[in-house]
Design goal:
Blueprint (H helix, E strand, L loop, with lengths): L2 H15 L3 H39 L3 E5 L5 H9 L3 E14 L2 E10 L10 E3 L10 E4 L1 H6 L7 E4 L2 E11 L13 E5 L3 H4 L9 E7 L2 H14 L5 E4 L9 H36 L1 H9 L4 H37 L13 H4 L1 H22 L5 H4 L7 H22 L2 H32 L7 H10 L1 H35 L7 E6 L4 H10 L7 E11 L2 E2 H4 L14 E5 L7 E6 L11 E5 H7 L6 E6 L2 E13 L10 E3 L10 E6 L8 H8 L4 E4 L1 H53 L4 H39 L9 H20 L5 H11 L1
Length: about 850
Amino acid sequence: MTNHSLLKLAWQQTLAANRLPIWRALLLALTVAISIATLLAVLGDRLEQSLGRQTAELLGADMTLRGGRPIDPAIAESARSLGLETSGVTQFPTMIEAGENLLLISLRVVEAPYPLRGKIVTQPPLERIPEPGTLWAEPAALERLNLKIGDQIELGYATFTVAAQLNSTPDRGNGFSTFSPQVIINQQDLEATQLLGVGSRARYRQLFAGDPAALKQLEAQIRASMASDERLITLDNSNNNINSSALNNASRYLRLGALLTLLISALTIALSLRRYTLNSRDRAAVLLSLGMTARQLQVLFLLQLLLAWVACALVGTGLALLLEQFALFMLGDLLPQPVPLAQPVFYGLGAALGLVSLITLGLPPMVAMSQVSVMHLFRRTAAPTTLGGRVLQLVAGVLLTGLLMLYLDDLQLTLILIASLLFTAWLLGKFGAWLLRVCAFALAGKHTLVRLLRLRLQQQQRWHRMQIPVISLLLALMAISLWARSDLMDRWQNQLPEDAPNHFLINIQPHERDGVDQVLGKYQLNSNLYPMIRGRIVALNGEPVANAFTPEQRQHNALNRELNLSWTSEMPGHNRLVEGSWSSQADGNTAHISVEQEFANTLGLKLGDTLSFTVGSIPVDGVITSVRAVQWESFQPNFYVIFTPGALDNMPMSYITSFHANGEQRKVSAALLQQFPTITLIDIEQLLAQARSLIGKLSDTSGMVMLLTLLAGLILVFTTLSQELDQRRYENALLHTLGATPQQCRQLDLLEFALLGLVCGGLAAALGEIALWFIHQRLVLIEPVLHPSNWILLPLTATALFTLTGLLARRRVDESNSYRLLRTLS
């Protein structure tokens, strides 16, 4: 037979197979798998590029070196020698004077070219940086000082002209002081102001932008000689984007959804191919009897798979691109426009993944089918299992393992997952079959068909041990997709409740505390003022930082900067004690401290350890007596380290607080700034609104992925149960010839399926809870929760689903086709 004849026959068989439900289920599962894989690959790459661009615009550069001392000029020279752009920035808090008005500002001193990424927007529009002798100021500074464009202002020992209103700018810097109204001046004017001197709290930045390869080379050079108080910020480790936490969680959920969908689709493809090849054994035997070789038969069915793949790849990729446009439309106002195109390879990734899955899952049963004997037409013998078939099955298993590792990016985790799935399947098969018999025994005497049902369950033990794990795992995967999204949405919503604090007050001096309390009370605002002082970790249990911590631990930001320290006799209400006991007072001269959980885990801190700090030049020690869980996204004042009262007395300190103000309460801002001009008021209402908008849009996007996962699961449920109903037709035909009515046969099938749904739903609920604990801890990174209502809803839903599938997929058995079926079986 020529290749042309094989291709023509494959085309004819493909058209004929489209009338079979089992083949249509295969095509639908393959289309969904290609669609979800393409969607996640393309959308993920475009989002990553967009967020990278957004982060660069926020940083004002592709990479930034920060420090508390002037940056070594040799670093800028190295950057220029590599063909990179670079610019230096100095920023510090200072007082600005306009007549009798004083205001605490954050002064940013820049040099050209600046910024390296993003754009400064001013009114009137001006380019580049302020000219010498002029400054640009944010609206908050102009309003509070009653200034307008063209006015004169005193800054240190120099006089400046207000040249523009600063509407938006990248590179705001880091730390609470940068939330003060910002003013930008030219580097050439800094010396005339005489603001920098001994004890000034200036922060220095060197910005870099250019070719990624050159940036990597420069990064390696900088890290090799970076000072202890310096920190290198790249697009990969920047936390400047307030939405980064939610986006990272969403990314993990989308990856989880893709993984679940691919697993479900792979199960559907495997079961559909197995069933299709079993149904095609007669055709294979006939073709072999007509002279076709086993190799030609394998090529014939391989061509049929390739034709199916081409159709599914076109439809699946097209659907993925439509869904991608929908997702980008939902997230459009949160991403810099235009959104970069994905790399070309990602547009074909889903189709390639579908081809690999189809071939690896399809070859083993098709090779077995090509070994069928012509005598199968007469004896109905099973195809022999050959060494080549077993090798192909092993290869398929290895490739699927590689697919899992691609998504989990962890070989050990992948092997643990596969071993867990195999053990779970064995355990579910044993326990599920036993549970079915127990439930049937409990129904004894309550229905006339229960005795017959028990006989069927006894006869079908082997099938139940194979199918119960598949169906239970499938229901668990569907439940995990739904529950994980629900838990993630609850976490996001709880992070930003309607009464989340939308104002911060910092730099409150001790003599201003009572007055601030009175103003807040006048506007009926509940707020706690926390004392704050800055200190640096210098030792652990008497060992210097360089010796006490590993090189990886020394990269933690807490060891490379001053920390905000606080003290209180009672644990803050928005913290949770996870280890040790809260200490409200020192033990003699030994101060007790409470540390944040993630901070303690990363640095390997334990109860009883002694941390040493320097506050200015004063040494302070504290013994760890408790570990706290802190929700950093709560918009409440939070601290890595909290001391017992008295340990930090007589040291320079200030207070910090946050509160929620709406309506008439928002007038408190003007009252506070008028009475206390040196405090810093930070209004984050706009940031909260943006975060809430992001949550809503991520909900819609994750819901789209969840629907695809549920669709793939429903296809597999219908495929599995309809296959089993086909087998039950022969049993029902025999029962019908022995006197059972069609109604009784239907009732028996539905009773078995309802019981199967109840058992599989219960097992899936238990399995889903266990799996979700692992997913919350390792993938989505949120606090695990129980879902007691789902222990009732999932079994009931599974029972209803199985019963409905039985009603829709079951074929009527009457007297005429009963004899025909039995003749076919004989």
